[in-house]
Design a protein that fits this description.
Oligomer: single chain
Bound molecules: S-adenosylmethionine
Shape: elongated
Largest sheet: 6 strands, mixed
Order of helices and strands: EHEHEEHEHEHEEEHEHEEHEHH
CATH topology of the largest domain: Methyltransferase, Cobalt-precorrin-4 Transmethylase, Domain 2
Distance between the termini: 88 Å
Helix content: 25-40%
CATH architecture of the largest domain: 2-Layer Sandwich
CATH superfamily of the largest domain: Tetrapyrrole methylase, C-terminal domain
Amino acid sequence: MNAQPMPRLGRVYLVGAGPGDPDLLTVKALRLLQTVDVVVHDRLVGPGVLALIPPGVERVFAGKQRAHHHLRQPVLNDLLVERARAGQTVVRLKGGDPFVFGRGGEELEALLHAGVPFEIVPGITAALGAAAYVGVPLTHRDHSHALVLATGYGQDGPALHDWNALARAGQTLCLYMGLSGLARMRQELIAAGMAPTTPACAVENATLPQQRVVKATLRELPERASRLDPTSPVLVIIGDVVALQDRYAWFTTAGASTASPFAGAAPKAPAAVNKRTA
Ligand SMILES: C[S@@+](CC[C@H](N)C(=O)[O-])C[C@H]1O[C@@H](n2cnc3c(N)ncnc32)[C@H](O)[C@@H]1O
């Protein structure tokens, strides 16, 4: 009896879908979505991006909402390995960028362990998408010289941080998964020396038509942001640069944004702009 030939080993592409607006996909991500055998996607990947997958490409929903996993991570890892061993090309599609709070490293470990070939395709992470669509320059020669991406939620609950480092002046802090623990983080940041009047905003569904922005000082942000939908993704930006948003906002959605509380607190516009508008 002849042994069945082993199927050719497939390949897994770990792909970032960006923050939501399908126009923010990379060209490589779009090409892959339209040519692979199967797309395994997270909850954060929105309908606009999924609509770009042709009917002949299989879709598998992997779920993932903080602490509510549709497929548990080991099951998901096995699925990727099995499909590749069956000769399929697989896109593992993740919201934002796979290497920013996306557990991309854990999935790669499983692929490496099984000897499955892979490629990584970066995506626009939520902080960059939110900042661009809200109009907050994350760094600015006059106001912010560093950018910190931090999570509000660790493996076993609220994230533990060196709050003195996060509270330093002259930097911009972007908090992922930060809405539910925002009151505690405010307390930690203020106790570590951050001014309670520091401009801040919470951005829900950034880059999508449903985008909503709540602007407030750090002291007031948790209470103001409690009006946002806790089941939608929310990104928090804290730093003096947020006050520039009054000047740089460009993306308007239906009834989207709270009035600015930063009148008078806005950092001065750059000199060149002042000259031009004077
Ligand atoms: C598990 S993390 C995934 C981050 C993702 N890998 C990235 O690079 O953007 C989920 C968090 O990302 C943020 N996020 C993702 N998409 C967002 C969006 N469209 N608007 C606001 N926040 C978003 C939220 O803070 C959400 O709780």
